[in-house]
Design goal:
The protein is mainly alpha-helical. Helices cover 81% and strands 0% of the residues. The protein contains 7 helices and no strands.
Length: 154
């Protein structure tokens, strides 16, 4: 069995410790970045509701839902879920909701420019990380979840 010299092993463990200390900051940055993108999109939709309805009727072909319902549901999701993600309150739930919105947005457009598709893939990747690892230590969930889950275990 091959083992690292103790000096290298200690140095590597120190590097890992530093990287793990940066995780809360990285998760916060991911939360804020993706929340900003979706929230601004929601604000754009409510600024000109007639145009939004026209887009959902003509451009966005959301499966199953009528255009008016899809417009309300999508816009509401873009305004509410990013707040949950940014604050980290029910962070995984908010990230899952935005993940679904992200997929529906890509599937609803007949043609997606390559740059736009790459942006959606990036958002999806960030949201996947937030779903898998949660919103992190610097979140409302870090404060609320232990109390809430502790009460559920009793």
């Amino acid at each position: 069995m091959l083992t690292a010299p103790p000096v290298l092993a200690r140095a590597w463990l120190r590097v890992i410790g530093w990287l793990e200390a940066l995780q809360p900051l990285a998760l916060l940055a991911a939360r804020l970045y993706v929340a900003k993108a979706f929230f601004w999109s929601g604000l754009t939709k409510i600024r000109d509701w007639d145009t939004t309805l026209a887009l959902f009727a003509d451009e966005y072909h959301v499966p199953v839902l009528p255009p008016e319902v899809a417009a309300v549901a999508g816009t509401t999701g873009e305004l509410v879920l990013p707040v949950l993600v940014a604050v980290g309150l029910a962070g995984r739930f908010g990230a899952m909701g935005l993940f679904v919105l992200n997929i529906v947005a890509v599937l609803s457009l007949q043609e997606v420019a390559d740059a736009a598709l790459q942006q959606h893939i990036f958002w999806g990747s960030l949201l996947t990380g937030l779903i898998l690892w949660g919103p992190g230590k610097w979140s409302a969930d870090a404060v609320v979840a232990p109390r809430f889950l502790g009460a559920a275990r009793r």
